[in-house]
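Progress report, Aim 2. The chain analyzed during this reporting quarter is listed below.
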Amino acid sequence: MTTTILVGNPKPASRTRHVAEAVAEVLGVREVDRTVIDLADHADQMFRWPSDEMADLAETVAASDLLIVASPTYKATYTGLLKSFLDRFGSDALAGVTAVPVMTGASAGHSMAPDAHLRPLLVELGALVPSRSLYFVTEHMNRMDALIADWASSSLAPILATSSPTDGV
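Predicted structure tokens for the chain:
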């Protein structure tokens, strides 16, 4: 199974990336079995058309079995960096990809943002989004593993009960 973590935080190696990697861990995806695309590392290529680098990244995302898409909350939604990258995909370019939307923020005030904004975007691109999205309040980084495990057990339990990361979520 191919797993990709797509991080739309303009800051490289961000807390958002850390949360997304923790989600992968909870799902049983080993570090060696996943690709991390931290868009901050590729921002200089974002608006270059054509860009072999961006085309390769898009191909990696579209070929994923499992895609964890993570963004901090900016103006009550995902970042422009993430949107700009996802704008490279056609309407059904992510058909066959199972996606997990993840957003981070400073307060619970925007906790509906991943389900209200990021989920519909991923569905528009053809991804299957079978669970409730994760919104993670960054002041709880010291309890991250437990909070993500709680989210996974309530949101992903039906999915994980019928499959495992090794046989395709």
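The chain has one domain: 3-162. Residues 161-169 have pLDDT under 50 and may be disordered. These observations will guide the mutagenesis work planned for the next reporting period.
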